[in-house]
Amino acid sequence: MGSDERGHEHVRVAVIGSGFGGLGAAVRLRREGITDFVVLERADAVGGTWRDNSYPGCACDVPSHLYSFSFAPNPDWPRTFSGQERIREYLEHVADTFRLRPHIRFNCEVTQARWDSEKLWWEVETTGGTFTADVVVSATGPLSDPKTPDIEGLDTFPGKVFHSARWDHDYDLRGKRVAMIGTGASAIQIVPAIQKEVGSLTLFQRTPPWVMPRADRSITRAERWVHRQLPFTTQARRGLLWGIRELQVQAFTKRPNELGVVEQLAKRNMYRAIKDPATRAALTPDYRIGCKRILLSNTYYPALAQPNVALVASGLKEVRGNTLVASDGTEAEVDAIIFGTGFHVTDMPIADRVVGADGQTLMQSWKDGMKALRGATASGFPNFMTVIGPNTGLGNSSMILMIEAQLNYLADYMRQLDVLGGRVALDPRETAVTGWNNRVQDRMKRTVWNTGGCTSWYLDANGVNTTVWPGTTTEFRQATRHVDVGEYEVVRAAAPEPRPRTQARTKKKAGAA
Length: 513
Prior knowledge:
Layout: E1 2-3, E2 9-16, H1 20-31, E3 37-40, H2 49-52, H3 84-97, E4 104-105, E5 110-116, E6 121-126, E7 129-138, E8 160-163, E9 177-181, H4 187-194, E10 200-204, E11 211-212, H5 221-229, H6 231-253, H7 260-271, H8 277-283, E12 295-296, H9 300-304, E13 309-312, E14 316-320, E15 323-326, E16 331-333, E17 336-339, E18 354-355, H10 362-365, E19 384-386, H11 399-420, E20 424-428, H12 430-444, H13 448-451, H14 473-479, E21 488-492
Helix pairs in contact: 1-11, 5-6, 11-14
Keywords: Oxidoreductase
EC number: 1.14.13.-
Organism: Streptomyces citrinus
């Protein structure tokens, strides 16, 4: 690492975020022999969304052996579906095992990243100082900034208010009258986790989710011993989990009508716990399963059937003092409000802080909808790459698979810069970005996410699905295996200037070293 003429730390690559995407990028850079990089983290610990979401019952809905890096298998997962603490421990382990901590700058929230067209580098301002970098990798993730709806009178509520992703562990819920707003992935875990301790729980449901049984169990000591002694068994388990989900993709992307059988399984899951016909009707979605994210739980419906839980099948409209008023006029008096209302997914705040070659922000560039070449690079933003960018989300499998595919693209991107040599940047051609996006959106037309009859967080303000990938993870991996330089404008400095002194790129593959 070196410094620029103003004394700012200059690096080859600046990675934003230390969740799965950021740590994965750091490992991949080291494996490519690049050690001249920093990971800029706004908090004081790694983990990303698995650090921030610490609410009661928080767990992953993807099997543990698939929701982990292929290059960092964990033979000791205690359950088939792991809880938040275990996943966060895993990410801490990755940071230690691959010696990433010297590269991480904690308490460095990025406030602006601006492209310098003369020097061909990014100037990255953070709360912990300013950096310059040849390449910036944004790995903030779509589930990082909570979204709270604008509710009339909320600012006058005298009780406690917080979002599920910013859980207040100092607030004692025991005996309290609690309102849960939303019925997404977080809410269906929170409701059964707090139901037994609260005095009363009122669930405000705008749209009911489809909830499938959760095939969760403890992984036996014998299984873990086998995985430790015979590592190929861990790989085989991961491969089986992956293969099953690859086979499911056709139903989501090409034949949504086949999902009716799955809906019947979800209804049986509900009927086992919910006996009241009116409640069943209120909990039954009117859209095709898969249109919204399919949720997994064995405890959600049983919790709703308890006498201290009330379901309000209408969204929250207004707050009057301690009284919450639903859109249908139903009222509930509560002491605390918990919002499980999701995140800024299609309007990621980081996009408003990134200023490209023409002086406009990434948010402004995406005013008509997010789009990026191969889900990674945006025209007008040279040497800037997003991990988990537009249309890289999944509806049925592990995002780690998509992250690793994008890390392959990052690795080849860095190789291409080295091959081109000198002070150089790659700026995706607008025609390439538009062509890629048009092909993705054309495929999206037949998918359950577009035809299933729902409004979901997959859709942006214009009703366009800029979130989900309409294919298999295999297809995406093939599409991101190599960088096609023909899809980019090669940008070189107008006049040669001495580069900042940086640590030389080593030829040795760093791996876990």
